[in-house]
């Protein structure tokens, strides 16, 4: 593994941690505020690609395990990786991998609507489809109750999908994927 | 923003749990967590509660911090308990009432909530009594056998250290960007409504640019210092097992075997 890949993954894990500390954005019509943390997850996939994006989420999850308060609200610790929300945290890993894979695939003919679609499918739908069943498994309740609860997060997640796509398009020239593509 | 992120949730003390080797603590917690998934009767729950309770007492961690660790799961646990109360099939306690509470529902809800509290308490205890970098060191040591199957353990260890080191640096960067924006008459926190969404852009875009620049510089610096692949590196700080660690490991093993015994007993009795 190249040193540059290690450093990108590590710094992006730190970036995702810091994004979780940015003040959340309250939307007036739903109870849950929009946090920037999952924006970091989508950016890790879009901007870094499959390999480095996945690695950065691996590092981020290990940071959570170490007890650093890197989740939104200053939370962290192994408790969150064995508790009901653990499915969502691990789904970030899968989401970043898939977003990165698709991002690399479409990189030469990239359009903003393609990136938005990729972020919506893997960054929003896939995260909830993994997180809700795991929560249901741990709390021994049916999956549909978790999915209904996840609906409250959909508007914020969709906004973040668009923002991540816009940011990636703006910074396309300095992306590590650009280096790999050899353009 | 925060200045003490390096300490994580660690609370300094001189208790027995603080002095244990982090590898012992990590393995004990993981073993107990896996066995807790098998809990299915009052006997098992009682033994598990004694184990977790005695750990809490040994650690001398203030109760306030333990309760704070449980706060994130209170909402989910409440919902879980209420759900099981009403939807578990069984004999209603008050027939004909609008509330179809069943005895089996109460027991089921109690068991599920109880188990989650045990898991979360023990995991919180680990992070409350161990420094993050010590835990990182323990993880690296425990994952070392995986090197044989191609898992880049040294690389993961390096990434962890870099990430921990640069969280404060990136926090400073965020503060600096926010301050610069405010000096130009653009206060992100004061913006309301949908415009706040695009305010994120003016914060995240420069933050991403500086992170990429930092990554490029750091990668070059590491290569220039001949770090190589990380294999064969020596360590400034070493972990050491003491007699206390073997004692603690033995105690955990005894509890785990007892739980397994009760579980198998219950399973055989049900056949």
From TrEMBL, chain A:
Entry keyword annotation includes Manganese: no
Tagged with keyword Transmembrane helix: yes
InterPro entries xrefs: BioY
Membrane topology: Multi-pass membrane protein
Keywords of the record: Cell membrane, Membrane, Transmembrane, Transmembrane helix, Transport
Cellular compartment(s): Cell membrane
TM regions (residue ranges): 30-48, 55-72, 78-103, 115-138, 144-167
Chief localisation class: membrane
Pfam families: BioY (PF02632)
Family label: Belongs to the BioY family.
PANTHER family: BIOTIN TRANSPORTER BIOY, BIOTIN TRANSPORTER BIOY-RELATED
Protein name: Biotin transporter
Organism: Paenibacillus phytohabitans
Lineage: Bacteria, Bacillati, Bacillota, Bacilli, Bacillales
TrEMBL record, chain B:
InterPro entries: ABC/ECF_trnsptr_transmembrane
Coiled coil: none
Broad class of where this protein is predominantly found: membrane
Membrane spanning residue stretches: 26-52, 73-90, 110-128, 149-171, 246-264
Membrane recorded as keyword: yes
UniProt entry tagged with the keyword S-adenosyl-L-methionine: no
Pfam families (alphabetical): CbiQ (PF02361)
Membrane topology: Multi-pass membrane protein
Keyword set, alphabetical order: Membrane, Transmembrane, Transmembrane helix
Subcellular location: Membrane
Domain of life: Bacteria
Listed name of the protein: Energy-coupling factor transporter transmembrane protein EcfT
Origin species: Paenibacillus phytohabitans
